[in-house]
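Batch job 17 of 40 flagged for manual review because the log was empty.
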Amino acid sequence: MKKYLFTKVAVAALLLVSCSQEQVPEISLEKKLNHKLAEMTEVAELGSVEYTVTKVVKASDDAAWYKVGDRKILFKCTA
């Protein structure tokens, strides 16, 4: 019986400790917003990125009865 007494006491203590609820303080939405705003304003540098894309577009006219010869064109597009 003494062997099981230690086990019973240990299980009871474990259950009592694990069942306690810790009170987490409720933070209002306004406080969260102010905190995030303060974090954002602490960033002192602004970064920007610029990309330039250049493409060459090749086009050709479809053959029609009123057109003479092949018509082809190349466009260079920069964006």
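Reviewer: the log was empty due to a logging misconfiguration, but the result itself is present. The mean pLDDT is 79. Unflagging and moving on to job 18.
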